[in-house]
Design brief:
globular; alpha/beta
Amino acid sequence: MAVNPQTIVDALKRRGFGAYYAQTAQDAVAQALALIPHGASVSWGGSVSVQESGLLDAVKAGDYALIDRDTAATPAEAEDIMRRALTADVFLTSFNAVSEDGVLYNIDGRGNRVSAIAFGAKSVVALVGMNKIVAAEAELEHRALSVAAPKNAKRLGKEAADICAIFVKTRMSIVPERIKVILVGEDLGY
């Protein structure tokens, strides 16, 4: 049985998240760009959803102060850039799983992505494909471990256990709408 996306959007809003629905990835990118102030410092984690959607390319072509770890010449420089990303005006990401009642879930290897989401960045904008929706909160970790982690590990040339170091479940936003979720009416990412 397919869930109505508006039901999920409403659940996210009840939990204090900014929540939007976009029928396509292209519409989601337009919505995300509308949420990012011109001139803002922007960074991102290793999100396939952000890349696949075209949001990363759009941000790189826009009027933003980028904090891009891929520009680092050394691992030490990359780590410094990841630390700066924690204080970005806007952090772009996705979630490994979202429950129909609006709970967000992520697994991370180093912790840079979940740290930016949990506290670091002033604003978080997340694109989430319908393929990441699970019926109940109890299913979040299972989806993240059995679907997202193996695919991400393969993409990174690692074992799933190597990238599953930190687990974060976000049940509500204390700062209203600091975390903005754009639910996309198609599959996106892992």
